[in-house]
Amino acid sequence: xxxxxxxxIIETINMIKLHNFDIRTVTLSISLRDCISENVNTLCDxxxxxxxxxxxxxxxxANEIENDYSxxxxxxxxxxxxxxxxGESCDVKNYLKIAKTLDCCAQNLGIDFIxxxxxxxxxxxxxxxxxxxxxxxxxxxxxxxxxxSVNVATSKAGINMDAVxxxxxxxxxxxxxxxxxxxxxxxxxxxxxxxxxxNPFMAGAYCGYGEPECALNIGVxxxxxxxxxxxxxxxxxxxxxLSNKIKQTAYKITGTGELVGRKLAEKLGVPFGVxxxxxxxxxxxxxxxxxxxxxxxxxxxxxxxxxAALAMLNDAVKKGGIMASSYVGGLSGAFIPxxxxxxxxxxxxxxxxxxxxxxxxxxxxxxxxxxxxxxGDTPNTTIAGMIADEMAIGMINKKTTAVRIIPAPNxxxxxIIVFGGLLGEAPIMQVNQLSSANFVLRGGRIPAPIHxxxx
Length: 455
Description:
Helix content is 44%, strand content 19%. The chain is of the alpha/beta class. The N and C termini lie far apart (55 Å).
C-alpha cells in the first residue's frame, strides 16, 4: 500500500493556491531545417505542415495534464529554428510572409507565443540576417503572437557593434509602429549576448542548431513560493540558513515541474528537453522577485544590498534545481523584468529602483535589462550604449545577458505604459542624458576578452 505524506500534499496545494506556483510555460522546440526551399511559398507550406505535425495536440494535452495534476500551465508556446537561417535560401527574401505564416500557425494551434524570428550575428551579417533584421519592426507590428530575438555578442566572438547600433534602430522602430499599444512591438523583441537554444521563455526562445528535431522544454516559476518559504524563517536566521531554505524550495519546485514536463512530452511522443527553473514574476500580488528581497530583509528593491541578495537568490535557485534534475537548462535563476513584477513596478514608480541599479543587478541575474520602459525620444545612440553595456557584462562574465527595452512613443519620464496580462505595466524610467554617439558610431567589433582563448 502506498503511504502518502499528508504534509507534503498540503504543502504542494498551498504552493499552488496561496503562493502562485505554476508551470509558467511548456515550449515545444521544433526544427525547421528540413523546410528550406528556394520558393518562399513552398517554404511556408512546409512550415505549416511541420508545425501541425508536431504541435496540433500541444494545447489539448497540456490542458489534460493541467487537469490531471491540478497544476496550472500558464503558457503554451513554440520555438523554431532561427528564421534568418531558414529564409535566406529563398530566391525572393520575403521574410514578412514567413512571419505571418508563423503567426497564423500559432493562432490556429491556439498557442500563446511563437519564438524564433531570430538571427545570430555576433561576428557579422549574412544576407539573410540583414533581410530578417530589417523586417522585424513590420513583422512584430503585423502579427499578434510572434516574438523576435537577435544575438549580437558572445564571450568567444566579442560584440558586433554594427549589430548593436542596428538593433537600437530596430527597437525604436518596433515601438513606433505599435505606438497605439504603447510600443508593444519592442516588448516582443530581445537583444542577446550568449543566447541559448533551449530557452523556453519569450521573447528569446528559439530552437538551437544543435537541438533535436523536436523536444519539449518547460519553464517553472515560483517567486511567491520562495518568498513564502523565506517568510516562515526566524527573522534572525543567518544568510546561510536562508540560502538553504531557497535551495530546498527550488528542489521541490523543480521535481514537480519535471514530472509535468515528462508526462506532457510522453503524451506528445517527443523527447523531454530541459527544465528551466527561472523565478519569472508576474504582476499578481505576491508573485514578485522584488518581494523576495523584502522577505530577506531589504526595505525595498533598489536598496543597497539588492545585488548581493539577488546573487544569493540566483545561486541558491540553481543549486536546488540541479540537485532535483539532471536536465536543468535554458536560463535558470531569477528574472528581474520591471513591468512584469508588482514589486519592481512599485520600486520604479517611487524612485528607489533606478536604471543604473538595474544594470548592476544584471551582473548576477538570469538575463538582463528586461521590460524597462524609457522615454520615446531617447536617441538611438543612447539605446545602443545601453545594449553595449549589457553585452559587455555578458561577454566578460561568460553569462547570458539581454536587453528588452521599450522606448515608449510619446511618453516621457514619469508616465505609465500598460500592456496588460503577463506583460503588465511600467513607469517610464529616467535615462542618462549624456551622449554615447561618438562611441557607438565607431562601429566594428569589440574583441573577445582574453579568457575566450581557453581551448
